[in-house]
Amino acid sequence: MITGKNYIGNQLSAKGNNTYQTFNPLQNEENQTIFTEATPDEIDEAVSLASIAFKEYSKTSGAKKAAFLNAIADEILALDEELIQMYCQETGLPEGRAKGERGRTVGQLRSFANLVAEGSWVEATIDLAQPKREPLPKSDIRKMLIPIGPVVVFGASNFPLAYSTAGGDTAAALAAGCPVLVKSHPMHAGTGSLVASAIVKAAQKTGMPNGVFSNLNSNGIEVGQQLVSHPKVKAVGFTGSIKGGRALYDLAAKRKEPIPVFAEMGSINPVVILPNALENRYQEIAKTYANSITLGTGQFCTNPGLLLGIKSIAFKSFIDNLSEEILKIQPSCMLHPNIKNGYEVNKSKIISQKNVSIVANYDVEVSDNFAQQAIVTVDGATFLENPTLHLEVFGPFSMVVQCENEAELENVIAHLEGQLTGTIIADNQEIEDYKNIVSALQNRVGRIIFNGVPTGVEVCESMVHGGPYPASTDSRFTAVGVNSIKRWVRPFSFQEWPNDSLPKELQNENPLGIIRKVDGISTTEKIYL
User: Fold this and answer.
1) Residues 5 and 42: beta-carbon distance below 8 Å
2) N-to-C CA span, the chain
3) Of the residues 301, 333, 408, 505, which is catalytic?
């Protein structure tokens, strides 16, 4: 078999006793398929297979890995309507969103395929020997990036395709040469199982080693804990809550051999609206942000949950317009009753705080699992004094903070936790007058946006999807785009190594024709000694 157990739920695993079903939030009922949790023996088998597979897969050529990744994309597309229908049943999201996310998932796989087929991503660096150098001769030293080992990827609740079974983490790890063990998210186990079957078919068709991929089902935290604790696992990818990501990070740090956990976690994505922009186009900004706050029922990690500005008549008009616009939008379904409950709990927690004013609260009765959007406002001093107000409310909710002046606005930004994004809304050259604000925001985020919305993450080489803690556990890396491959590799040097025994990327002849840095100069040329 190519995978470990459980890759399509109970069809391959009859050993476990713990079963569960996914939930259709639109119908407010459980879906019919029964899934079985992976047992400790199945987990150990899957990890052991991955560890064995690593010996071969880590040395697989870029061309063969590219063929594998492209085959996964092809097999996902071949699932066609079966996948789309399962996605919609398990999320309550519309068909258009399902197809859009499938397109992004396929695009990610193909972009990594192109990256490894070309090959220069390994950052081959060569410093040639200087045997006659005085006072000491210089050795021949050659460096490149090599895969780190079996990787555990946790499926994300809000992106069943793009951040889950064959999502960005999986694509990047497989591209790097690392076998992947997916801990499937229980809310979309059916979607994950279908995608897992596509990966298995692709692995078989392209001759990948047994154990290069496994999908393990579970409804609780035990399977994930066992995977992260397993001594043969070498790294973890996670997208989800601060509580979940931090628990995995701490668990990995306590191991006899600590391993990296690359977790993308909470973010309220502050938006700073400067005075001239407010004065000239507060109505336009209000409408734009009402749509952004409610997009996808607010279930994006880049949802603008915090709007910041300086008190003025224009800012007051903006708040009034935002309140009017957001109440015009029809509420939509959340991913799961548990997520809806979490939204209501956290929204109530914020609303109950002292000096918080509710300026918009959709109070018309809605269907089960639909979220009622809300906007609240506080002054800058209150926000600074009360850490509870910094809480992420996962859903269609945003807080407007009214600061007394530029100094207080800068202070508010400086006291924010790390965020994925920050946005500046300004007119013409207005940002030139607020350089301290821009600088303060840049120090708290991984990506800064000018006159736009944070919702929507382009998958490209320039994208940074990460940020200072707790937006992510390591702000030096992105979770989106081909540069995310760098999370699953480590630099490695060969010193005075025989040319014929070197990896092709480092051989004098440069048989792969990649870009290399030789004695400080980037080149594709051969080395003549």
Assistant:
1) yes
2) 47
3) 301
